[in-house]
Amino acid sequence: MTAEYQCHGAIALITINNPPVNGLGLVTRTAIAEGIQRALSDAAVKAIVITGAGNAFSGGADIKEFNSPKALAEPSLHTLISVVENANKPVIAAIHSVCMGGGLELSLACHYRIATPTTKIALPEVKLGLLPGAGGTQRLPRVVGLKLAVDMIVTGNPVSAEKLSATALFNTLIKPGPDGEWLSAILAFANKVAAARPLPKVRDLNVEYPDYETFFQSARAAVQGASAHYPAPLKCIDAIEAAVTRPFDDGLQYERDLFMALLQTTTSKAMRHAFFGERAAGKIADLPAETNRRPITCAAVVGAGTMGGGIAMNFANAGIPVTILETNSEALNKGLETIQKNYENTLKKGKLTQEKVDQRIALITGTMDYAAISQMDIVIEAVFEEMAVKKAVFEKLDAVMKPGAILASNTSTLNLNEIAEATKRPQDVIGMHFFSPANVMQLLEVVRGAKTANDVLATTMALSKKINKTGVVSGVCDGFIGNRMIEQTIRQAGFLLDEGCLPEQVDKAIEQFGYAMGPFRMSDLAGNDIGWAIRKRRAVEAPEMTYSKTADLLCEQGRFGQKSGAGWYDYKTGDRTAYPSELVDDLIKKNSADIGVTRRTISDQEIVERLVYALVNEAAYLLEEGIAQRASDIDMVYLTGYGFPLFRGGPLFYADTVGLQNVIIAIDKYSQGSHGEAWNTAPLLTRLAALNKTFN
Predict the structure, then answer these.
(1) Residues 597 and 498: beta-carbon distance below 8 Å
(2) Is there a catalytic annotation at residue 105?
(3) pLDDT, tens digit (0-9, with 9 covering 90-100), for 662-674
(4) Could you give phi then psi for residue 98, rounded to 5 degrees?
(5) Is the peptide bond before 437 cis (omega within 30 degrees of 0)?
(6) Residue spans of beta strands (DSSP E) within 322-478
(7) Residue 226: which H helix or E strand, with range?
(8) Residue-wise burial string across 193-231, b where 16 or more C-beta atoms lie within 10 A, e elsewhere
(9) Is the peptide bond between 158 and the residue preceding it cis, with omega within 30 degrees of 0?
């Protein structure tokens, strides 16, 4: 967690060495500043090179230090940048691999910058609800131009150094070679500029853009729609405008003021919570870091339906050959055709080249013979959500799969331990619950069975990263983390219909809260028959659990959602727009009369509280039971799999911001109303509120 100092003739080389991304934490900043002062004090040193060890120049500031004394402790990043910029000897940034955030801001203060063409360059602070706070909004427009700077800062997306080669950001690009060649090249450049004077400073450049007022007006209009919930993009534009309209030092101060204000917003805190939550999800308390991983070089999927095909695409996208097993040729061919169409659609959108499409499709094959998949390293079952069907598949897999193969189930609710007991190797069985569409959705619930081996769990978590998923570990219970919680929300949504709401009001209220889609539109998309099957199972296994009858009445009429052309809403051929249904509204009102409930006016606030606090309360039970490891894991499940709005940070982070005592007050109120039996405050929630503590 430091920076190393070496001399190569007349050149001082300072190498940032703070794995994994050379973050600019306090210890590292101190070491860099000391290295620069040492070089400036050495008469034999004529130029200074700053570079990074390992696979990064620098990934930026250490956000773990945000809101801590270390963030502002001297030398701060601002102080370090000032030291670099005001050095009386040339300072050269030798950039490779990754240069982002504070790392790019540091390099912009250097007098010269050289880079490898493939280096990823970015100011990604907006993705944390912030803006670059160490001069990025003032210096970047001066070297890449106004339009490109706005695009890079407002989106936060990385750009390759090669694509920036025509700008003034880099003095030269050096193709990567062996370490010795790279070092020789940067030392040669440093020697060439060692005597150059005056030393060029980015701050001395002007931002030239005719009619910049019109440009900024258009830029603001482009991000205005999201600004109510995400203030950072507009503030980024405000700061960049200061690079045009204010003296440099005034612009720096204005940028800093905006940064500090954004740092305190709930939106930024929520986005930073999600950032850390994603990284924390991969840490499993009782899984030793040195646990071996099983090699995954080939995979199989049982089932060529929508889910099975999507799962197979994940493996192909990661370069892993995958075979899809189906029981009949018609289903297999249909599944393979769907995969082909999905890739063709991606090609049409310009997201993949024809070459990439061809490569990925070539990695996917089909079979109707279990023996053909026997040597695969992992097989994922994705058949109908019925215990008998899944157990039959696992019995066959147990008979044919090679020793050590991982047997995974995509079950969304069923008892994984019971599935595992259908085999003679329960230690090899694990749950991999993908979310539809599986090739798009980020979440992967990794379900740890009672007998799942440590190396199987470690391998599956590593695999989740390889196939670009956020893996979150869940214990075994009905519905695991996500579906167990969502069932309570769905129950409340049904009760709201009984008491006075219609589907459109419920959906609009929760969409106004920030969800992309309300529970009834979502149910129509997923298929209302799925919930119907679960309720039938509940009637046998948990008859005490009550539901509104409206969803069953809907299904009895064959209104299964978009796939049947009618559900909670009406749909037109070729049109996925949800149109309110008079028939459904009448059905709901009649059901209220039949069960003796006088319908009432219900506020949007009550709708949101009941839907969200139902999640919060059930989540508290999951934590207490040990089904979920930590609160942030639950938040990640809902942020990446269920459309919970990012700017609210997940259900438990949101509860923390509301105040747990306020959540309990609301739950107590609703427990006195209709279907109050559905509200039993979780003991953990009660304890935390009493101690004035939070989930996170």
Answers:
(1) yes
(2) yes
(3) 999 999 999 999 9
(4) -140, 130
(5) yes
(6) 322-325, 364-367, 378-381, 406-409, 429-434, 443-447, 470-474
(7) none
(8) bbeeeebbbbbeeebeeeebeebbeebeeebeeeeeebb
(9) no
Condensed to tens digits (0 to 9), the pLDDT of residues 488-510 reads: 999 999 999 999 999 999 999 99
Residue 84 phi/psi, 5-degree rounding, is: -65, -50
Give me the catalytic one of 125, 381, 504, 606. Answer: 125
Is residue 312 predicted with pLDDT exceeding 70?
Answer: yes
The structure tokens 């994994």 sit at: 20
Residue in the structure block whose two tokens are 């909004």: 137
* Residue 198: both structure tokens together: 């005056």
Which of 4, 65, 85, 105 is an active site residue? Answer: 105
Q: Residue by residue, what is the 3-state secondary structure of 540-567?
A: HHCCCCCCCCHHHHHHHCCCCEHHHCEC
Nearest alpha-carbon partner for 229 in 455, 533, 511: 511
Distances (CA, A) of 659 to 408, 691, 696: 39, 12, 12
Q: Which long-range contacts (CB under 8 A, 24 or more apart) does 341-344 make?
A: 342/309, 342/313, 342/439, 343/313
User: Tokens standing for 241?
Assistant: 């405008």
Catalogue the E-assigned strands of 355-505.
364-367, 378-381, 406-409, 429-434, 443-447, 470-474
Q: How many helices (H) and strands (E) does the chain have?
A: 28, 19
Catalytic status, residue 34: no
Give the pLDDT of residue 228. 82
pLDDT at 71: 82
